[in-house]
Model the fold of this input.
Amino acid sequence: MGALHIDRREGGVHVFTLANEAKRNAVDPELLEALRSAAVASDAEGARCLVLTGEGPRAFCSGYDLRVLREKGGSEERLPDVALQETLHALERAAPPVIAAVNGAAFGAGGELAVACDLRIAAENATIAMPPARLGIVYAPEGLQRFVELVGLSRAKRLFFTGDPIGASEALELGLVDEVVPEGQALDRAVELAERIARNSPRAVQGMKRILTLMRRRELPAAAVAEVEALRRASFASEDAQEGIAAVLERREPRFSGR
Done:
């Protein structure tokens, strides 16, 4: 099980570190709850900027723990990734800006954790991939929308339809990250930027973050909500999802049947 390390630094900068290095900082419901609670608590404490990173040099976050995902499947009332979306919403609703220090691989849930932050600093060895199509899973509309807003509809389709990873330089060209720094320097640069933001008026910075968040809200039409829910629930319960997750865990190519 992973843990969340919190470093409260001078000037109102709080650094959150996903600490599950044995699983390349994969998230599970408990770690997501810890991150959600930390964002709320730091907001209440008056933090002026938050930084999110992963433990060790290999990964920012390798995604949702697939063993947990396989156990839950689509049989429960709540879909397994609802906890992820709740945490992402908490980061977006937090008054202080959040900066992702992408120190390595950011796959699946890890990629969306980075995208849900206000700014992203990537190490040159970082890679980003959104592989739900390789897992047989229909991704949450909120997550798809976050990528569309950053890279546009066509590029978002390519990222999600292929599941292919992209490197830091391509992510910068696409607008998926804001800056690329040498390997091992993502956290230092993110903290430097956070300290710069924290010296500004918190009322002004947080007010503008709130306005920008309100400006980007795009809700699905009511008629589409049930259709999206049905598509997603069917995918989590499908044979393709079972095969996709098993293939990753067994380190082999999936054999999808479309069922």
User: Anything to note?
Assistant: Residues 3-198 form a domain with the 2-enoyl-CoA Hydratase; Chain A, domain 1 fold (CATH 3.90.226.10). The beta strands are 3-9, 13-19, 49-54, 59-61, 98-102, 105-107, 119-123, 127-129, 166-167, 179-181.
